[in-house]
């Protein structure tokens, strides 16, 4: 049985044999039996490289942070994660600057990670439940994810793709409602709309 460490667009942690393209964490979530005991421990929900400076560690080691895995960056953003400022520093800087501009950050200096995390946390979870918001499907930018009848979808250029842990598949926009439950936090959708391009799993390029 695979470990329960795969994250879906709703931000929920599940079991899956599928391999992700990004790792990340929310703090220590597991016990000594490698069982998930909580959904998050801190406000810094990050996404990391699968490999960094040759570091090796046992998954879900005692007292260590819980390694989580994501299909791709689009999924991670929908779940409420942001790039790590250490192993993905260039991507973090790019996202931070784009997020600041798109959301009219009014601070006297560049937004700091804890300040972004506070906003993102309010937009991703409330009383233990995923925060969604109603948006017009036709207005959603590239990379935004939404949900219809418990199924996750992503906007990819002028297409809509259906999500799974294994990858994406083509979906017809016909039959989907005009207004949808958006999974990606609002401040992140604004960032996408302003030009920041989240990365899709490689199989999305082979569809269509």
Look at the structure and give the mean pLDDT: 93
Tally of contiguous helical segments: 4
Task: Give a short account of the largest sheet.
Answer: 6 strands, antiparallel
Q: What fraction strand?
A: 25-35%
Count of discrete structural domains? 2
- Low-pLDDT stretches: none
Rg over alpha carbons = 17 Å
Distance between the termini: 34 Å
Structural class: alpha+beta
Order of helices and strands: EEEEEHEHHEEEEEEEEH
Helix content: 10-25%
Instruction: Assign an overall shape.
Output: globular
Main sheet: strand order: 9-14-10-11-12-13
Number of strands: 14
Q: How would you concisely characterize the structure shown here?
A:
This protein has 208 residues and is α+β, with helices and mostly antiparallel strands.
Give structural attributes:
208 residues; alpha+beta; 2 domains; six-stranded antiparallel beta sheet; four-stranded mixed beta sheet; 4 helices
Description:
This protein is α+β, with helices and mostly antiparallel strands and 208 residues long. It has two domains: 4-126, no CATH class; 129-206, no CATH class. Helix content is 20%, strand content 25%. The protein has helices spanning 73-79, 89-102, 113-124, 186-193, and strands at 4-7, 13-15, 22-25, 46-48, 68-70, 82-83, 125-126, 129-130, 133-136, 145-148, 151-156, 159-164, 167-171, 179-182. A six-stranded antiparallel sheet has the order 9-14-10-11-12-13. β12 and β13 (167-171) form a beta hairpin. α2 packs across α4 (186-193). The protein is globular. The chain starts with a strand and ends in a 15-residue tail after the last helix.
